[in-house]
Amino acid sequence: MTLVRRSDTLALANLTDQALRVRAVEAASTYDTETLVQVTQAYMTTGSRKGARTSAKTLAAYALAVRDFVPWAQASGVQLLRPGRRDGGRYVAQLQTRPTRGRGKSGTLSAATVAQYVAGARALYRALRWAGATDAQPFEDAHVPPDPTPGIVKNPPYMREVEDVLEHCDPRLAALLILCAHAGLRVTEALTVRAGDIQGAQLTVHGKGGKTRRVPLGRRVRAALHGLAPVTPEGHLFDWQYHHVQYRMRKVFAAAGHRSAWRGFHAARKHSGTRLYRATKDFTRVGLFLGHSSVDTTRRYVAMEDNDVQNEVEDF
């Protein structure tokens, strides 16, 4: 995969309107995928609602989607600047029937993957409109059916696995897992924690979208962080990239006898949300703890007990 250099993206954003339009039109006319990725990222970082605060993860996901959509469009006879009104729907249908290439998986692409690819293709057309290359909106009426299986069912929280796995972690890896499973941090937030962010029983978390929140640290989290020496001059407690720590966590899950249970770090965050909800019965408080802007998001992080209202309905 070709990486898009940030300098190339900034150079596009700094072009005059006419020069940007010419570059975008030429790239779309010749199906120049990498230039179209640059145009999309230039738009996302300078013209979208979040602008420069657009996360690197979102930029990478949209780049992957553009790299999928543009070759499909070329092979399918779609003129990028003058697409047919049904071309967006054709792409969605193709994604829904495409076999998955995930390791150990079978069937077709998941609904979440389809939605991510379509979101990236929509971003490409917003970028082309921003660049003045076209007014086309081929995905305006394209419907992406939601996944009928709730995320909490497809990817439930780790529960007993956490304790088993911690026994096989070194202190720093254990601290990372506990930050996710007990303090409710996203793994990207945990990896950027600095010693100076810890003030007694509180942690300042630099979260998604540039938001900052204060998270209370339980006794076990404080004990896990105590004595961890910073590993960078800036005081960071971890110097791992995401793929490094994912590899390490896969190994300790396997060592603990839970090789097939590994479902990524979000399941650890759901562990925290589920336990806190069971203690408080309050989605609003759980959402504030997890850093959610919507309670609807929080509901997707809580595994409800089957008989949660048994006592309440007993005397109906």
UniProtKB/TrEMBL annotation:
Tyr recombinase domain location is 152-315
Q: Name one Pfam family in it.
A: Phage_integrase
Q: Which key words tag this protein in UniProt?
A: DNA integration, DNA recombination, DNA-binding
Please indicate if the UniProt record lists DNA-binding as a keyword. Answer: yes
List GO BP terms, alphabetically: DNA integration; DNA recombination
Task: List the source organism.
Answer: Deinococcus grandis
The cross-references to SUPFAM superfamilies, in alphabetical order and at most eight, read: DNA breaking-rejoining enzymes (SSF56349)
What name appears for this protein in its UniProt entry? Answer: Phage integrase
GO molecular function term, any single one:
DNA binding
Q: Does the keyword DNA-binding apply?
A: yes
